[in-house]
Specification:
With about 170 residues, the chain is an alpha+beta fold. It has 3 helices and 12 strands; from the N terminus they run αββββββββββααββ. Helix 1 packs antiparallel against helix 2 and helix 2 packs across helix 3.
């Protein structure tokens, strides 16, 4: 019982400042697929739809995939933080530094490469609260001691004015 309570408290604590949060909608893929060399490509959205919304969330099978358009093109990542699986898009993207921020754990990832840029970079009261939770809850302690993991990235391409995401199907 304690574990669930602590996690709910922690989420409530990190979600307290939602007045500036933008609504993010999940788009479902257009249904068109093709395969090339073990890559399954899924047609997601018209390229022009990114003119007013440079970050779009799309559902492909069971994954929420965040597509980010910047000056260098399109980038696709799994929208789940590799730390606990919470939604990355809620923290927002920094297009200048090519990063996405996990607001739940103060982690930053490159949306271009998946690389961890900062891991559990909490300060002040949040750091104290995380320390406190870890003293009373074994799951919270384990969560705070996890090794950094990169976020999963996917291939993208534009074909016939549509953005496609490519998922490697393995060998």
């Amino acid at each position: 019982m304690m574990t669930g309570s602590v996690i709910i408290l922690a989420l409530g604590f990190f979600l307290r400042d939602n007045k500036n949060a933008q609504k993010k909608y999940i788009n479902f893929y257009l249904g068109e697929k093709m395969s090339e060399q073990n890559i399954e490509w899924t047609k997601l959205a018209e390229e022009k739809s990114f003119e007013n919304n440079s970050e779009q969330l799309h559902k492909v099978k069971r994954d929420d995939i965040l597509i980010v358009k910047d000056d260098d093109g399109f980038h696709a990542i799994n929208n789940r933080c590799p730390h606990l699986g919470l939604a990355l898009n809620l923290g927002g993207c920094d297009l200048k530094n090519k990063t996405i921020h996990c607001k739940f754990h103060s982690c930053d990832f490159s949306y271009d490469t998946g690389e961890v840029k900062s891991w559990l970079n909490v300060k002040g009261f949040e750091k104290f609260m995380m320390w406190l939770f870890s003293k009373f809850d074994a799951d919270a302690k384990k969560m705070m001691s996890m090794e950094p993991k990169p976020v999963e990235t996917f291939l993208t391409k534009v074909e016939d004015d549509f953005v496609w995401v490519g998922i490697d199907q393995g060998e």
